[in-house]
Write a structure and sequence with these properties.
- This protein has eight helices and no strands.
- The chain is mainly alpha-helical.
- The chain folds into two domains: 156 residues, no CATH class; 31 residues.
- It is elongated and about 75 Å long.
- The model has no long low-confidence stretch (mean pLDDT 93).
Length: 194
C-alpha cells in the first residue's frame, strides 16, 4: 500500500471510529437528559395551564401525554446508559490513536517501509469491530453529526476525506425533513393565499 493510500485508509477508519464514539455519546446524552427536560416542560406547561386559559387546550394536553410516552420509550435505554458512555470513551481513545498514527505516517519519507503502520491500523480496526453497542436511540444520528462535525477537531480527517456541507455535515434524513417541511409550508401558504 502506498503512503497516500494508507493515509486515506487511516482517515476513513478515523471517521468511522470517531462518528461511532459520538453516536454512543449522543445516545447516552439523550437517555440522560431528555426525560428530565421533557418532564420539566410538562410540569411548567401544567403549572401555567392553571393560570392561563389557552394552555388548557386539548392539543396541548395531548402533547404533554406524548412527552410522557416518549419518556417511557427513552427509559428502555436507561439500563445501558453507562455502557454507551464507556463505549464512547473506548472509541474516542481509538480515534486519538488513529490521529497519532496518521501523523506518524505523514512524517515518513517516500519509499519508507509502511508495514508496521499497516499492522497498527489493522489492530485498531480489529479493536473497533469489537464494538457491542449497536442499538442506538432515535435521533442519535442527528445529534452525533452535530457532536462529530461541529464539536470535534477533525481537520486531519478533512485533509483526506474533503467533507462537504450537504453530503457529509448534514444528516440526509434531517435534510429531507427540512426540505419536506419547507415544501409543506409553501403549499399551506399558497393554499391560504388562493
Amino acid at each position: 500500500m502506498t503512503k497516500d493510500g494508507l493515509l486515506k485508509s487511516i482517515a476513513e477508519t478515523g471517521y468511522n471510529v470517531g462518528y461511532g464514539a459520538k453516536k454512543n455519546f449522543a445516545t447516552h446524552d439523550i437517555v440522560q437528559k431528555a426525560p428530565g427536560g421533557l418532564g420539566l416542560v410538562s410540569l411548567l406547561v401544567g403549572l401555567y395551564a392553571l393560570v392561563w386559559e389557552p394552555l388548557n387546550a386539548k392539543w396541548i394536553a395531548a402533547t404533554m401525554v406524548g412527552f410522557g410516552i416518549i419518556t417511557l420509550i427513552i427509559t428502555h435505554y436507561d439500563h445501558n446508559k453507562d455502557a454507551y458512555a464507556s463505549e464512547g470513551e473506548r472509541l474516542t481513545a481509538l480515534f486519538y490513536r488513529l490521529r497519532d498514527l496518521y501523523r506518524d505516517v505523514q512524517a515518513t519519507a517516500e519509499g519508507d517501509d509502511l508495514s508496521a503502520y499497516r499492522i497498527s491500523l489493522d489492530a485498531i480496526q480489529n479493536e473497533f469491530w469489537r464494538s457491542n453497542q449497536s442499538k442506538q436511540i432515535l435521533f442519535s444520528d442527528w445529534y452525533a453529526h452535530y457532536k462529530f462535525f461541529w464539536q470535534q477537531q477533525i481537520g486531519w480527517l478533512d485533509e483526506q476525506l474533503n467533507f462537504s456541507f450537504w453530503r457529509d455535515r448534514m444528516p440526509l434524513s434531517l435534510t429531507l425533513v427540512l426540505a419536506l417541511s419547507a415544501i409543506g409550508a409553501i403549499a399551506v401558504g399558497a393554499y391560504h393565499l388562493a
